[in-house]
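Lab meeting, item 3. Inverse folding demo.
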C-alpha cells in the first residue's frame, strides 16, 4: 500500500519544494516506487524535475474521474520516480468544494490500492499557503512532513501548520501522522540557526528529525537545471543531507509498520 505524504508549510522559501524533489528522488534511488504530485500552481516541482506542465491543470479531471492519475503522470530522469505536473498558469486549479469532495477519497483509495511494485510512495508538494490546495493535500495524506527554516519566526509558522493539520483530523475523522519536522537551510556556524534548532527540538523532541538540511547553493543550481541533487551533484553537502533524510524517513515508516503489526 502506498504511503501518501504531504510536504507543507504556510511560508515560502523554506525549502519545501526542494525537499519534495530531492526526498522523492532519494526514495526512488533506495528502490521505492515514487509519485511526486505538484500541487503548487507555481509549478516549481515540475520544472525542478525538468518537466513541462500542461496548459490546464489535470487535477480537476482526476478528481472528477474524467482522467486517471496513471494517464496524467510523467516519467522523470530518475528511475522509479514519476510526477503529476502542475499547470503552467498561476491560478489555483481546485476550488474548495473539489478539495473536500468525494473525488479526494476516491483518489486516495486508488493510490492505496495500486500494486506495490508500481507505487510505494506518493509525495505531495503543497503551495506556501493554507488554502484549498493544502486542504486537498491533507485530505489525501497519511502523514505530513513540515520543513522548518532555521530563522527567527520559525515557531510561529510551525504553529499555524500544526493547527491546520489538527483541524483537518477533526474534519476528516482520522489521524494524520506528523511524520517529522525537517530543519532546513541549516548553517551550523550561525548562532541563530543553532538557537532555532535547539528550540524546535526542545518543544518537539519526538517529531523533529535528526537530519538537518544544510544550506547549500548547489541545491538551487540543481533545481534551475531541472535535476534533483542526486543527479546534478551527488557529492555535495545538500545531496548528503537528502540522502540521510530519505533513510530517516524510511526508518520512521518501518518503525510505524512494526508498531501496527
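The presenter then showed the designed sequence:
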Amino acid at each position: 500500500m502506498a504511503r501518501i505524504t504531504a510536504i507543507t508549510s504556510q511560508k515560502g522559501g523554506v525549502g519545501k519544494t526542494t525537499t519534495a524533489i530531492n526526498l522523492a528522488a532519494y526514495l526512488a534511488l533506495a528502490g521505492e516506487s515514487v509519485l511526486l504530485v505538484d500541487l503548487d500552481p507555481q509549478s516549481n516541482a515540475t520544472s525542478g524535475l525538468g518537466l513541462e506542465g500542461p496548459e490546464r491543470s489535470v487535477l480537476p479531471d482526476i478528481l472528477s474521474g474524467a482522467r486517471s492519475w496513471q494517464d496524467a503522470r510523467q516519467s522523470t530522469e530518475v528511475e522509479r520516480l514519476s510526477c503529476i505536473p502542475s499547470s503552467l498558469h498561476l491560478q489555483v486549479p481546485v476550488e474548495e468544494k473539489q478539495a473536500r469532495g468525494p473525488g479526494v477519497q476516491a483518489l486516495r483509495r486508488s493510490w492505496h490500492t495500486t500494486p506495490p511494485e508500481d507505487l510505494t510512495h506518493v509525495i505531495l508538494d503543497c503551495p506556501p499557503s493554507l488554502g484549498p490546495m493544502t486542504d486537498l493535500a491533507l485530505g489525501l495524506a497519511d502523514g505530513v512532513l513540515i520543513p522548518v527554516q532555521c530563522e527567527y519566526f520559525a515557531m510561529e509558522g510551525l504553529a499555524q501548520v500544526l493547527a491546520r493539520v489538527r483541524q483537518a483530523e477533526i474534519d476528516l475523522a482520522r489521524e494524520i501522522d506528523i511524520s517529522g519536522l525537517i530543519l532546513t537551510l541549516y548553517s551550523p556556524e550561525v548562532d541563530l540557526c543553532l538557537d532555532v534548532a535547539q528550540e524546535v527540538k526542545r518543544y518537539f523532541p519526538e517529531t523533529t528529525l535528526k537530519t538537518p538540511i544544510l544550506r547549500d547553493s548547489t541545491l538551487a543550481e540543481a533545481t534551475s537545471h531541472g535535476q534533483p541533487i542526486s543527479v546534478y551533484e551527488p557529492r555535495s553537502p545538500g545531496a548528503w543531507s537528502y540522502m540521510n533524510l530519505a533513510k530517516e524517513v524510511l526508518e520512521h515508516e518501518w518503525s510505524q509498520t512494526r508498531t501496527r503489526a
